[in-house]
Each structure stands twice: as structure tokens, then as C-alpha cells.
Write a structure and sequence with these properties.
- The chain is mostly helical and 136 residues long.
- It contains 4 helices and no strands.
Length: 136
């Protein structure tokens, strides 16, 4: 449930990546404890380490914004934005472009442009229906 003042809720890649990474780490340690160290039992020191991993997650959540900024800066340093392929392509009938006069000085500014995003922004997709199309 999203409160009306926060709707629409926009999500980014970070929470999923953060939580899945930490969850995988804790499952790996648990499988090592349960499968290799002491099969069929968890000792007190293994349980203590699992609890410390939980406290580590609380610490990660406390420094979440700083950690996200750090990871994003490291990823953007390795990957150039102009070389990243789009996640999907929209297919369909061609959209009619507005007619532009040869002598129009605003010709460049009246053409539709692709959206650009900066860090922390997300894309909100809304279907567009031509004005000439009417529904029953």
C-alpha cells in the first residue's frame, strides 16, 4: 500500500540489488554452517555469526544512501551511459511527425526528443492514444 501523497511510487534498481546480494551472502554462510562445518546442526557460534550478519544488514540500511551513491559511482565509472543498450524496444505503427516548415526557426525544438534520466530518476510509462482514436 502506497500512501496517496507518495503515489505513484517510483522504484529503482538499487533496493533489489542490495537485498538480493545480502540475502545471497547470508544463505551461502548458512549453507556452509549447515552443510560443511556441522552437518544437521547449527552451533551457538554459527548462530551468533548469523545474528551479526543481521546486524550488518541493519548497518547497511542505516548507510543506505551513501552506499547507493558509492556503488552507482563505481558502476558509472566502468560503464559509459552512451554505450548501454536500451532494455526494450517499442514496436508498433509509426507515429505521425508534425510538419515543419523549412524556414521555421523553432524546427529543432518542436521535434519530439527521447527522454533522458539523471541519477535517482526512473521512467514512468503511460500509454499514448492518438486524439483521433475514440473508444466506445
Amino acid at each position: 500500500f502506497t500512501p496517496p501523497e507518495l503515489a505513484p511510487l517510483e522504484l529503482t534498481w538499487w533496493p533489489l540489488a542490495r537485498d538480493c546480494t545480502y540475502y545471497a551472502l547470508t544463505l551461502i554462510t548458512l549453507s556452509v554452517w549447515f552443510g560443511a562445518t556441522t552437518p544437521d546442526a547449527i552451533t551457538w557460534w554459527e548462530a551468533t555469526l548469523q545474528f551479526l550478519l543481521y546486524l550488518g544488514y541493519v548497518l547497511v540500511m542505516y548507510y543506505n544512501d551513501d552506499l547507493e551513491e558509492f556503488v552507482a559511482s563505481k558502476l558509472s565509472a566502468k560503464t559509459r551511459r552512451d554505450t548501454v543498450a536500451p532494455l526494450f524496444a517499442v514496436e508498433g505503427p509509426p507515429v505521425a511527425q508534425p510538419k515543419i516548415d523549412e524556414g521555421d526557426e523553432k524546427a529543432e525544438t518542436t521535434r519530439p526528443r527521447a527522454p533522458s534520466l539523471s541519477r535517482g530518476e526512473s521512467v514512468r510509462f503511460e500509454p499514448s492514444v492518438p486524439a483521433s482514436r475514440k473508444y466506445p
